[in-house]
């Protein structure tokens, strides 16, 4: 049995790693959107975050590893989409550093074309990614949606919403559309907010 990270954002970061190409894969949404949504979904699934008038609100007090709950508590009511976008870039670095400290990944700086600095990520044990992918695959094709592990259901919902092709290629998203909708319903409002954030971002780029 292979150990996997406890947090949903850490799991989604690793799922975004393409083992075949040995690098992070790009989806339709920036990785930060997916990781922020994962943090929101984790809080929602654990009851630390609720919803009123289609906006997230603090729920049962508890652990807030990424500071998302504190941000929501200190702000006026805002949409899920707002909180998916909020500090998205910084969240990538936070989760990446968490995985480095935990020994899950190795990061080294490199320059692209000799000019642009970027972080090159390597997963230390590919079996971890395979185990996470196996959980998502089972959620997509296995037992009734109501009986699927909540984090595996969330992984599928977030991967589909963020268009992470390393996890769910477009053909699979179309083939399993109804199943993805069932798993998304179990996960809460964070995954649909990623789709809205993608549409808003694409519209802004197009204009």
TrEMBL record:
Pfam families documented for this protein: GPP34
Q: What is its main location?
A: Golgi
Q: Which Gene3D superfamilies match?
A: yeast vps74-n-term truncation variant domain like
Q: Which GO terms describe its cellular component?
A: cytoplasm; endomembrane system
A GO molecular function annotation here is: phosphatidylinositol-4-phosphate binding
Tell me where in or outside the cell this protein is found: Golgi apparatus membrane
Query: What are the alphabetically sorted keywords of the record?
Result: Golgi apparatus, Lipid-binding, Membrane
User: How does this protein sit in the membrane?
Assistant: Peripheral membrane protein
UniProt name for this protein = GPP34 family phosphoprotein
Q: Give the source species.
A: Actinomadura darangshiensis
């Amino acid at each position: 049995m292979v150990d996997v990270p406890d947090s949903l954002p850490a799991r989604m970061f690793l799922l975004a790693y393409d083992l075949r190409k040995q690098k992070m894969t790009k989806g339709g949404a920036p990785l930060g959107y997916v990781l922020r949504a994962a943090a929101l979904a984790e809080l929602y699934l654990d009851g630390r975050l609720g919803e009123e008038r289609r906006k997230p609100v603090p729920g049962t007090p508890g652990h807030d590893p990424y500071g998302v709950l504190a941000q929501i508590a200190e702000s006026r009511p805002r949409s899920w989409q707002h909180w998916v976008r909020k500090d998205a870039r910084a969240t990538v670095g936070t989760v990446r550093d968490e995985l480095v400290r935990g020994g899950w990944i190795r990061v080294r700086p490199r320059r692209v074309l000799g000019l642009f600095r970027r972080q090159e990520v390597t997963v230390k044990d590919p079996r971890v990614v395979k185990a996470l992918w196996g959980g998502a695959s089972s959620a997509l094709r296995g037992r009734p949606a109501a009986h699927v592990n909540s984090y595996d259901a969330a992984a599928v919902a977030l991967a589909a919403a963020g268009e992470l092709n390393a996890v769910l290629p477009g053909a699979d998203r179309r083939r399993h559309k109804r199943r993805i909708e069932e798993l998304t319903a179990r996960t809460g409002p964070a995954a649909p907010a990623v789709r809205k954030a993608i549409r808003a971002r694409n519209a802004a780029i197009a204009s």
